[in-house]
Amino acid sequence: MHLRTHLKPLAWILACAAASLGALPLSAAADTFDVKVGFAAPLTGANAGYGKDLQNGVQLALDEANAKKIQIGGKTANFVIQAEDDQADPRIGVQAAQKLVDGGVAVVVGHFNSGTTIPASQVYQTAGIPVIDPAATNPTITQRGFDNVFTVISSDAQNAGTAGTYAVTVTKAKKISIIDDRTAFGQGEADEFEKAVKAAGGTIVARQYSDNQTVDFSAQLTALKGIGTDLIFFGGLDRQAAAVAKRMKQLGITAQFVGGGGVMDTDFLKLAGDAADGAMAWEYGSPLEKLPQGKAFAEKFQKHFGVAILSYAPFGYDAAWAAINAMQKSNSIDPKVYRPVLKTISFPGITGTIAFDNNGALKNASSTMYQVKGGAWVPIVTKSGT
Length: 386
Fold this sequence. Notes:
The chain is of the alpha/beta class. Helix content is about 40%, strand content about 20%. InterPro entries: Leu-bd, Leu_Ile_Val-bd, Peripla_BP_I.
């Protein structure tokens, strides 16, 4: 075969190189394989800050895992993220979930909103792909008997429930009111707060509603001012919570403001201004700075991304490592093989010990109440529970 006489010089060189490679042992690249880690959260819109914060937490875990050159099945795993924007919309969330399934992901970390997580998790359950929830907190998420659903964060039964009990037994509020944004998250935590207040012997004197696009809470707050409420719990996220606190001050309402999850962050402080002073909020988990690895993680995150943690990045990081550890321990990225290991895994995460109960919920979850003092959020008390 007169190969050389029929090829131009460059083609001849390439042909020889290819032939030589065929005679060599497998390259380092051939000993590495990609593991797709799905991620879904709002990456545009009002909740995009939360979504990007979560994504950075997941990406940091994957970068660290890749630096360790983790071996699975005798090869080095290269963890790559496939991120989808669910826009905090349940319908789009389901579409994002299906894209991740169709993309061949081995696991999913997501979503952020409960209203998106609940329907999307049905897609993962049907596909047999584990989803590890780093931020959505409606108790329904882990109460449907799905064996592919896990969560590394407290539920609202624990967080908002603790808030309700505290409002009655410690704050000693006598006339408690609630406003919620009618989302699965906001309404869900408001429901849990109300149940806990009543169980502790407290009184709910009024419950007002908005939606998650409301910017002016004058109507709701004027109604509450008229009945002399002494504590207002808001079920919703930081931007609207800040609008409530600001309008309370403008209307001369002296009731104690209490927020649930997703309120204790710098955006609330910026938007509420001086109306933030004295505000309380219950947040999932223990204060990062008081956890063994918390300070180091915050510094590492800042160095890696050039921004500070907004809120839930540590939970995204822990969720990703839960999957990585289970895959490494089971020596497989096949959900059928690593899922049983994931169910029984226990390791020290950034946010605390990561271990799951029979429903996939986080064991020994905790919540912390913060209060704004001198323009900053200060942790006041941490309560643990199941």
